[in-house]
Write a structure and sequence with these properties.
This protein has 219 residues and is of the alpha/beta class. It contains 6 helices and 10 strands, in the order βαβαβαβαβββαβββα. α2 packs parallel to α3. The longest helix has 19 residues. It binds ligand LGQLAAA5.
Length: 219
């Protein structure tokens, strides 16, 4: 089974080139002002050109209002919207209808019971993402480089389409894939040399680690 890989928080042509060279299926842009990964919608629109025909461009937003989403959709032309805040099922449905784009709804989890929160979104969100809960005092709802216990995902329906996110890196991706066998993965700070600074060498190393883990499983 193909594994979707999203490299998130891209801000430079170099990082974009490394993500695409590695075989990213998705590239993500952060539209949350407090994030060190924030990009202006027009700049994301320029950067995402390199991904056309190669990877889907994802706009990551946090409880964004229609005016900001309108600006992002017009200037960036995303292929998908990632809703990383406390959006309700009604809001997810509204966003989908307004833009006609697939929506990925994010849930922060730490125990199996947290997974029940997806129930009202089934049939509304096109895909789910499971991320770790932010550490106390963090200004960011995601991109904290914190992992959760991936084994809690083992109880999910086999057909559920989701991305595993939170604290992934080249050192732990093998464990994550073995523990949860997710259909897709998402990484940001694990391929950075400093907050918001993507390192092309770390991106390449991450893809190598993913390939090695998958080769091990196939052997
Ligand atoms: O990355 C951010 O700054 C961010 C800000 C606001 C919402 C979501 C954000 N990031 C998302 O979180 C995941 C996991 O990040 P990490 O690998 O743990 O650093 C990231 O891929 C984005 O989808």
């Amino acid at each position: 089974m193909a594994l979707d890989i999203k490299i998130c928080g891209l801000k430079t042509d170099e990082a974009m080139a490394a993500a695409l060279a590695g075989g990213a299926s998705h590239v993500g842009f952060i539209f949350f002002a407090k994030s060190p990964r924030y990009v202006e919608p027009a700049e994301a629109g320029r950067l995402r050109q390199a991904a056309i025909g190669k990877a889907r461009a994802v706009a990551v937003t946090v409880d964004a209002d229609d005016a900001f989403l309108d600006e992002i959709v017009v200037k960036m032309r995303p292929d998908m919207l990632q809703l990383h805040g406390s959006e309700t099922p009604e809001r997810v449905a509204e966003v989908k209808a307004r833009y006609g784009l697939p929506v990925m709804k994010v849930f922060s989890v730490s125990e199996a019971a947290d997974l029940d929160r997806i129930k009202p979104f089934i049939g509304i969100a096109d895909r789910f993402m499971f991320d770790a809960k932010p550490p106390k005092g963090s200004q960011l709802p995601g991109g904290n480089g914190v992992a959760f216990d991936w084994r809690i995902l083992a109880g999910l329906d086999a057909g559920l389409d989701y991305m595993l996110s939170g604290g992934l890196n080249a050192a732990n991706i093998g464990d994550a894939l073995r523990s949860a066998n997710p259909p897709a993965i998402d990484i940001s700070s694990g391929v950075e040399s400093a907050p918001g600074v993507k390192d092309p060498a770390l991106i390449e190393q991450f893809f190598r680690a993913v390939r090695a883990a998958r080769d091990d499983r196939a052997a």
